[in-house]
Structure formats: structure tokens, C-alpha cells
Records
---
Amino acid sequence: MKETKINVSVYIATSLDGFIARPDGDVSWLHEVEPIEGGDDAGFGEFFGSVDVLVMGRGTFEKVLEFDWPYGAMPVIVLSRSLTEVPKKLRDRVRIEAPTPQVLLEKLSQEGFKRLYLDGGKVIQSFLREGLVDDMTLTTIPVLIGEGLPLFGRIDKDIKLRLLECRSWNNGFVQSKYQVLN
Ligand SMILES: NC(=O)c1ccc[n+]([C@@H]2O[C@H](COP(=O)([O-])OP(=O)(O)OC[C@H]3O[C@@H](n4cnc5c(N)ncnc54)[C@H](OP(=O)(O)O)[C@@H]3O)[C@@H](O)[C@H]2O)c1
């Protein structure tokens, strides 16, 4: 159960069959679908503007490093027990940590952060298992990829959700925002 005031939000895209990446981490299928008309970003810019810290797993960090850094000056915490070094050009905004999710939230709360963006399948699963996620915005991409890294996984008990908003676009994206009823 969450004891800190920091709000934890997930904003993530999945294939219709529930994967966030292919088994080898490839996400090119996300960019091969027809974009929304008019450059609409499915609310990502607004969401990103509403958070003050980003926490991601090592798997997501390693994939993001293959591209131009997309998060500007946003403070980013990478959860990893195996990584030790952040690339030099990112050291002013990225740090590696390995506390439990609860301890991490307490620490970030004490540092003054209020709204956290949580990213990475395994990391999201571990925070969900501990009842530490407040809301999730899930964008379903109209494609089946058959196998891959799942967004959701094993849980010890059912997690109930309240649908807050649901919208869709002509290109087939369907976005649902849920409050997690921890
Ligand atoms: N579709 C999308 O919108 C979307 C969004 C995000 C990511 N992705 C893709 O998803 C893939 C990565 O996802 P993923 O599920 O494999 O990995 P992930 O959650 O990004 O990273 C998992 C790793 O984080 C570390 N970790 C530290 N603390 C943890 C904790 N409490 N719980 C879980 N992991 C913890 C572990 O690394 P150590 O072994 O170093 O400790 C673990 O192996 C990438 O290919 C990425 O591009 C897609």
C-alpha cells in the first residue's frame, strides 16, 4: 500500500495482444503504424508536461539510448542492479538507483517530486504488485505481434481499475485511462 503523496502514472502503448516490445526489445512496429492525422500526439505532450520525474527500468533505458535522448532536462531515475555508469552527456539528469519501489517513492517524495512517470514493463509490473501505481493511460495500437515483452504479468491478487476516460482516433489507436483502485 502506498504511503507517500507522490502520484505514480503510467503512460504506455501496447499491441492489441498486450505487448510493449518484441522479444528482443524491438519497438519499430510502434512507428510503422499510420500516425494520427494532424500531428496529434495522443496526449503525450500534455502528460509529459504534467510530470516532474521519470522512473524507468534498465531495459527501457538501454533501448532509449539507441535514439536521440527524448526527455529533455526531465530528471530520470533508472532502476538497475547491474548498471553502474550513466553516459557522460546524461549525467546531469539521469541517475541509477536500486531501492525497493516503496523506498524509492519515499526518497523522491522527500526530494520534493510530486508526479512520477513510470516506464518499462517489468518495472510497471513490480510497482503494480506493490499497490504503488495511481493511474495508467494505455494506448492500444491496432496490430498483433504474436509474442513479445508483456505489459502485465503475475499478480498476487486481483487489481481493480476504474475507467476515467476512453478515446479513439481514425488511425485505430484506442486510449483508455484508468485509476488503479489499490
Ligand atoms: N510500448 C511502449 O510504449 C514502451 C514503453 C517503454 C518500454 N518499452 C520497451 O520495453 C522494453 C523494456 O521493457 P522490460 O519490461 O524488458 O524492462 P524494464 O522494466 O524497462 O527494465 C527491467 C529491468 O529494470 C531493472 N529493475 C530494477 N528494479 C526493478 C524493479 N523494481 N522491478 C523490475 N525491474 C527492475 C532490472 O534490471 P537489472 O538487471 O539491471 O537490475 C530489470 O531487468 C524495451 O524494449 C523498451 O523499448 C516500450
---
Amino acid sequence: MIDVTLIGTGGMLPLPERWLTSLWVEYKGRACLVDCGEGTQIAINKHGLKLSRLDTLFITHLHADHVSGLAGLLLSLGNCGKTDTLKIYGHIGTADIIRQLCCICPVLPFEIEIHELPLDSIMRFDWNEIIISSMPLKHSIDCLGYSFVLNRKPVFNPQKAKALGVDVKYWKELHAGKSVVMDGQEITQEMVTDEQRKPLKLTYMTDTRYFDDMADFARDSDLLISEGMYGDDEYISKMLEKGHMVFSQSAKLALESASALLWLTHYSPALVNPNDYKESVQKIFADTVISRDGEKITLK
Ligand SMILES: [Zn+2]
Ligand SMILES: [Zn+2]
């Protein structure tokens, strides 16, 4: 089970009722955050999430609405007793800027470890049993999208174990993936589990213009979080210039990538009522959510 919370839904500037876009992902008691705009630590608190669980930060790009909250976040982490290392991932060139932002909070009770990711290829690495992939996006500056994939163990099926006459005392070992030998016969995990389950997948892509490879990167997402600066298609060419998308383009992306659910986010401050476009965008992709700050889901 992966717990996902969209911390905010705004782009460019925080508004009184709309924090900046960032994402909280929690799995087995540990959490990571994607992006950290102004005031993100306040929004995390407001949504009832435990900052002390945060061990990793992923940065998409170095525009202020995605990184200017870093110093506040670091100070808040120190204040809540964090002493273990905070890992920060961003694209090549991120480390320098992070170090400069950290100048205003030079004394922290924990170390920061910065990892730079390539801008010309997809990179895969692990976080907390989850496979993270980063992919270069097409924005006005260098930018990365991220996907989270959790491969799940097949579920133990007591009926199958009973049918094979497996004694209950062996169940725990089989459950843990081990084989057992019973009356000279080997019982393997595959003999007592249901079929392989589909991995859980979450994809996060903002800020970017629409381009063909995005659908492959987001393929089969249980949840696709994608940007929509505006709801009206009249902004498509303006957004193309600025490296952004409108609602209908994200809906098209959800459809092409065969994603199960789409959350829209990163609304322009000029877009006062994103819900005005709900009906039209759901005509393209029915399972579209016009996200609000604090939108939550448990992927399972
Ligand atoms: Zn932005
Ligand atoms: Zn940006």
C-alpha cells in the first residue's frame, strides 16, 4: 500500500486557498516529497502528515515554485528532531543551487546527500523498495518527471495450502517466500499463492509541454499526476511556448498511457475555478480528478 497526498495544486505562486504543487508519498512508515515550493512544510503539517518520516526529496526543476521552500522545510525537519541523512535527488546542476539555498540554514542536525540525475536518459534507482525512474521533460528549463513502481509479492492462498495438505506450521515460511519439504515433497511458494499481481505505479509529470515519449513513461499508471495550467484549449499554443500543458492534453496523456486515474494539478493563479472544466475534460478521460490541496489516495 502506497499512501499518496497532493500537498498543493498551485503553479507559480501560493494563494490563500492553494499551496504550491508538491507530492507526498509514504510507504512502510517512510516518506518522500516531490518538490518543495514556498510554504510546503506548512501545508504538510496542515494535511496531518508526519514530517519526521521524510527521508528523501525529489526535485523536478529549479523554478522558484518548486524549490523556494527548501530552507523552511530543512529548518522544520531539524526542529522536529531529524538526525538521519536527508537524500535529495535532482537533475545535473541541482547540487550547486541546493547548496546555495542551504546557505541560509547552515546549521542542521542532519546531513544532506545530493544525487544528480541525467538529463539525456531515463534513470532507475531504489527508494524504500520502490523503483524510481526519472525522465527528462520539456519545460523552459531542465526538468525531470518521476515514476514510482512497487512490485508486489503474490498473495498466500490458504485454500491452496489446505488442498495440498500443507501443515499450518509451514505457512509462515511459505508466506515469506521459502520452500518447505513435507513428507519428502517440496512445496514451493508458487504452489500456495495466487497469480502474480500487477505492480503499483504512480507517475508525476510537471512542468512540461506535451511530447510523445510521455505516454510510454506513464504507461499503465494506477495514478498519473499531470499538470494543467489552464482548462481552456485556447491556451494550448501559449502553453506550448512556455513548456506547460492544458487540462485536455493531460487527459489525452492519461488515455494514451492507459492510466487508471488522472489527478490534475499546477493550476495557474489566473485559473480561479478549475472545476469549471471538469465536464469537458472528463469527456476525454472519464477518471479525471480536478485535484484539490490535500487530495489523498492509497494505492493497493
Ligand atoms: Zn511550476
Ligand atoms: Zn517551472
